[in-house]
Design brief:
alpha/beta, 14 strands, about 30% helix
Length: about 300
């Protein structure tokens, strides 16, 4: 099955000469959640805006559901729901009227049954007749999603959907995204919250300076690039690592009460057995041993630093 969104060698250069996107290629599969990670100014919003037909590309080609975004704009755009970063709602309008209007913009026949289903899915049923100005920030973001879903798109773009939202509302939003995926909606999410990608994405893409650095399944990314750490807690602090342990490239932390050993979990030999055996030849007394895998944040920071080097 062909990807529902195909981006081929996409470039966007502004009149000033600034190249916001540099030959970006990306294939998004139907029904997946793809999280695009990147620092501010990385090109996330430009990429989404171009796919949605808001920004005209300089070079390259984008198809949505097989429709070229330039040659067959209406058919491509009808498949897309977009939730931008900024909350842009008419404050005196009622929630239901706001959503009805968005549906009408796409030429869809009135269908309050479908709109009620969307509002219910987003926990907005009891706010249906409320004015936008009466809603909290989190509820306004839900209305933005309801607007984007009003014409029953197959693809939903969420550009920094939880920016400025507190932790509890952020988690509620994650649950909403998971429910939308269960309904068969393909979701592309841009974020600079690492935990957001780690919590809900099927695949993670890293973009910086207008270039896609990688796109991997979350599990593969952790397995291929993630390292593990062995944390050795000592019964008494030490000022220095004994010379006999020099080959293991250990580092001291927590005021000398902890030794950290980093190893590649995919390696044929991790060196842990030899390390623990050698430790017995030192005056150090072990209190506890723990392992932990590097986080997606560690991997992301490493990729960005590598590109900047």
């Amino acid at each position: 099955m062909p990807p529902i969104v195909s981006v081929d060698s996409l470039t966007k250069t502004y009149g000033s000469g600034f190249e916001a996107l540099k030959s970006v290629s990306l294939a998004i599969e139907e029904g997946e959640i793809l999280a695009l990670l990147g620092p501010n100014g990385a090109g996330k919003t430009t990429l989404i805006s171009t796919i949605c037909g808001i920004t005209v590309p300089t070079k390259g080609r984008v198809t949505v559901g097989g429709h070229d975004i330039l040659e067959d704009y209406r058919a491509a755009r009808s498949l897309i729901g977009l939730v931008p970063q900024e909350i842009n709602l008419e404050p005196f309008e009622r929630v239901i009227d706001t959503v009805r209007f968005s549906r009408g913009l796409f030429g869809k026949a009135p269908n309050d049954v479908e709109l009620d289903r969307i509002l219910d899915k987003l926990s907005l049923t009891d706010k249906k007749t409320s004015k936008i100005m009466e809603l909290s920030g989190g509820m306004k973001r839900r209305v933005m999603i309801a607007k984007a879903l009003s014409h029953e798109p197959r693809i939903l773009f969420l550009d920094e959907p939880t920016a400025g939202v507190d932790v509890e509302l952020r988690r509620d939003m994650w649950e909403t995204v998971a429910e939308l995926k269960a309904d068969g909606v393909t979701i592309i999410l841009t974020t600079h919250y690492i935990e957001e990608a780690e919590a809900i994405a099927d695949r993670v893409g890293v973009i910086n300076k207008g270039e896609i650095l990688l796109v991997e399944s979350k599990a593969e990314l952790m397995a291929q690039m993630g390292q593990k750490e062995l944390k050795i807690s000592l019964a008494e602090p030490t000022e220095a690592i004994p010379y006999i342990l020099a080959e293991f490239d250990l580092r001291l932390s927590d005021g000398g009460t902890c030794l950290i050993y980093t190893y590649d979990r995919r390696a044929e030999r991790t060196g842990i057995t030899k390390l623990l055996s050698t430790l017995q030849q030192t005056p150090l007394e072990l209190d506890d041993i723990q392992t932990q895998q590097s986080s997606l944040e560690d991997i992301f920071v490493g990729l960005v630093k590598e590109q900047q080097a």
